Amino acid sequence: MTNKRGITAEDLFALKSVSDPKLSPYGNEAVYVLTEIDQEKNVYISNLYHLNIDTGTSRQWTFGENRNSSPRWSPDGKEIAFVSDRSGKSQLYLLSVKGGEAQQLTHCPNGASQPLWSPCGTKIAFSAALKEGETLTEGEEDEKFPQPLEVKKMKYKSDDSGFFSGKRSHIAVMDLKTLEMKEVTEGEVDYSLQSWSPDGKYIAYGADKSADLDTSFQTDLFLYDIESGNEKKVTGGTGYFGNAAWSPDSRSIALLGHEKEYQNATLTKVWLYEMETESLSCLTSELDSPVGDFMVIDFQQGVSNPGIQWASDNQSFYFLASDNGNTVLYYGNLDGALYPALLEDQHIYGFDLDADNQKAIAAISNPELPGDLFMLDIPTGSLKQLTSVNEEFLSEVELSKTEALTFKSSDDWEVNGWLMKPAGLKEGEKYGLIVEVHGGPHMMYGNTYYQEFQMLAAEGYAVLFINPRGSHGYGQTFVDAVRGDYGGGDYEDVMAAVNHAIEKYDFIDKDRLGITGGSYGGFMTNWIVGHTDRFKAAVTQRSISNWVSFYGVSDIGYYFSEWQIDADLNDIEKLWKHSPLAYAKNINTPLLILHSEKDYRCPIEQAEQLYIAVKRQGKETEMVRFPESNHNLSRNGKPNLRVARLNYIKDWFGKYI
């Protein structure tokens, strides 16, 4: 017996998230970001913390009710550059490690981000959003009244930033002695700042400079020559390339990318560009897992991509890969060696290698750990926990354990997933089963902490979460298999998972089944209730119901539909065939529809169409609209609405299951 209580939706307010750990140049200290929620003000607060590696003690470095992020050590380890919104907009600040008040470096009209130190420590490159005619210090005055939006491009809105306002992301360099700033890029192009060569000669950045950005889907790597101001294109305009990392001797660049062989289902690889020969080659062609962190999360905040990190020998490097439900730290070298440096059932969502290549600090989560920092001893593979930011909270609650599952689908494909057992499981009793389907579809569930799943388990449900075909982590053939077959093999995978769980666990009540998911998972939820009455209740979130209208209303609709459904508006019959709305007349399962009003990825008209189609037939359905929220409500939306969403899910299943 335990006196601990189960997880509730409201526990989200108490949890703390650690992210973006960075070791000092000497490796004896680190800086990281800790994010928590101010429930009364309904905001996130992020501050920088200093960590003494030897003693394991942390102390707060920034204070206030703001978002402080992206800490970056100066080359001499004496200062930290970071981003803060304390002035009203995100700007760059400089903080001495000895203490004192942070110095504001930039006053850009639309904010600044991504601080990047020059190797000599006298300059900082950064990103700034600018409209045509604006400078790094002077911007347009805000309009007093609403103005019309003239739309001349197909890419005119984004779920992240809303309707396009004419701002483009540019790169600038600040001299820290004079505080003078120089724009490095210009034009109607977005640039992504990536790295500064160790010899100080080049800045690497990404951009798409195609003639028609509406029909171009690529990112190339460019090198900016500091001395001459000239720009050189490194990649060939055939795919997505970025996260450039220079070798310590500045002779090579490792980068992440792919050449779109399977459109957005293509596995990301590690590539090498050699400065002397100007050649580009793939280093991880034999790795049948995507490089990067493709884990679906609903808790961690401020997660950033650690990219590739070189060892000091100019031959070896480290990176993350998503494999079989885990995020794994891999080692590779230029001779072709490739193997996991740390392979555990866990989610590594950040790491930083020390200068001697003997240790790395890592942010790690697992199903029973929301996230903490660990020190990895690379030669032995041993881990030492450095932080316990949720220790008090975890001492009060009972977290449910998960078991890994492997089973065969209807066509003999092998599929993987997990079952989280109900809290307080008692022998001889029966429990309802909630099936969770992730979004993407090219993402993956795995061994990380899920607030939603733990809450449902605390309510007495078994929770089944799987990676159907289309998920990352199981090879190129598996992730590509969903394209052109939405509602086919992927549907069979989900139903096979249900059958397997019922057969394996005698405590599951086969007559008390629920289904839920968001985005692609919402599509699958809609599809399932239109094709079977097996579930007693369903909750569809930020979903797709009609591919015909999605084609024109989503911020990615016109190309995502072509890539995923293999159809455009010249083939409306196929778009409609794969649309759950076409089968709405078959829906008998009580259906709760949750959708954000400012979701431009899967716009709310998708929910409205489905709601009316089901309601008009007199079937049991309700719709909940979340104001001032986008597609990422469940991950980083307004805290009170994230909690409300969880409670709507809990209450709907509680009513019918």
Description:
With 657 residues, the chain is α+β, with helices and mostly antiparallel strands. It has a domain at 399-656: Rossmann fold. The chain contains eleven helices and 39 strands. Strand 26 and strand 27 (338-342) form a beta hairpin.
Helices and strands in order, then pairings?
Layout: E1 17-23, E2 29-38, E3 43-52, E4 58-60, E5 68-73, E6 79-84, E7 91-96, E8 103-104, E9 112-117, E10 123-130, E11 157-158, E12 162-163, E13 168-175, E14 181-183, E15 191-196, E16 202-207, E17 220-225, E18 231-233, E19 240-246, E20 252-258, E21 261-264, E22 269-274, E23 279-282, E24 309-310, E25 316-323, E26 326-333, E27 338-342, E28 347-353, E29 359-366, E30 369-377, E31 382-385, H1 391-394, E32 402-408, E33 414-420, E34 431-437, H2 451-458, E35 462-467, H3 476-480, H4 489-504, E36 508-518, H5 520-529, E37 537-541, H6 547-553, H7 557-564, H8 572-577, E38 591-596, H9 605-615, E39 621-626, H10 633-636, H11 639-656
Parallel strand pairs: 34-35, 34-36, 36-37, 37-38, 38-39
Antiparallel strand pairs: 1-2, 2-3, 3-4, 5-6, 6-7, 7-8, 9-10, 10-13, 11-12, 13-14, 15-16, 16-17, 17-18, 19-20, 20-22, 22-23, 24-25, 25-26, 26-27, 28-29, 29-30, 30-31, 32-33, 33-35
